[in-house]
Design goal:
globular, two-stranded antiparallel sheet, about 250 residues, alpha/beta, nine-stranded mixed beta sheet, about 30% helix
Length: about 250
């Protein structure tokens, strides 16, 4: 009798182990976020746009978001924008949206959508005051002969997800912007050290990356990204990823 009981216990234990091994993982996988990358230009067109899109798509594959690229302003409708958790203006230039599209984008941001402006996003929509406050400042000028030079970027806020990986002084090559109509309500994360290069006009307070709340939405801007090489630079890519994570409310 004891032998039969022991056999039963062993058989029952093996059955439990097999059942546990065969039970699939029922933890639901988080739905990826959708990111619209807008690359329309009505002025200067940056050669690095395609490289930037490729880099953002690679970041998305590794970090659970899907990048959809568009050159069409017709995608800026209230119905379509609801599909996206973030809209990126990647080196857009000039007047890229009409009045109806502008209104749809304003409603998207004020209703809780997010915006990331990269480089020439500040060279866009000069006659749209709301956008000027959203992006945080407009391009005014940049150093010439050559435009792309080495400069030092100073860490202002090392706690933000876009900058926590960076050193106190970040030396890199890019095309540096001087800005006008800077929004005083933004939170600066990085400052450009004008003593490290020739051609700066903003002075000691020369923000080059910043973030702020707009209505129920979020907005981040980074002035880097003119060159193709920027998108192969680990610190810059991690900087953009941290900005995206913040825009997606993950950090």
């Amino acid at each position: 009798m004891k032998f039969i009981k022991s056999i039963f216990i062993i058989f029952f234990s093996i059955s439990l182990i097999c059942s546990a091994q065969e039970t699939p993982n029922t933890t639901p996988k988080k739905r990826p976020d959708f990111v619209l990358v807008f690359t329309k230009t009505e002025g200067y067109r940056h050669e690095s746009i395609s490289t930037g899109v490729k880099a953002l798509r690679e970041l998305g594959r590794k970090n659970n978001f899907i990048v959809i690229r568009t050159e069409s302003s017709e995608d800026f409708t209230e119905r379509n924008l609801k599909n996206y958790q973030l809209v990126v203006f990647l080196s857009t230039t000039g007047d890229v949206l009409d009045a109806e599209e502008e209104k749809a984008f304003e409603n998207y941001i004020n209703g809780g959508g997010s915006f990331l402006g990269i480089h020439a996003a500040a060279d866009t929509e000069y006659d749209w005051n709301w956008y000027g406050k959203l992006v945080g400042g407009y391009f005014e000028s940049h150093p010439n002969n050559p435009n792309v030079i080495q400069a030092s970027v100073q860490l202002v806020d090392g706690t933000h997800s876009s900058t926590k990986h960076l050193p106190e002084t970040w030396v890199r090559n890019d095309e540096w912007y001087n800005y006008k109509n800077l929004n005083s309500e933004v939170n600066v994360t990085l400052n450009l050290d004008e003593s490290s290069y020739v051609g700066g006009t903003n002075g000691a307070q020369h923000p080059i990356a910043w973030y702020h709340q707009v209505g129920a939405g979020r907005a981040y801007y980074s002035g880097g990204g003119h060159t193709n090489e920027s998108y192969a630079e680990n610190n810059f890519i991690q900087h953009l990823l941290g900005a995206i994570e913040w825009c997606l409310n993950r950090s």
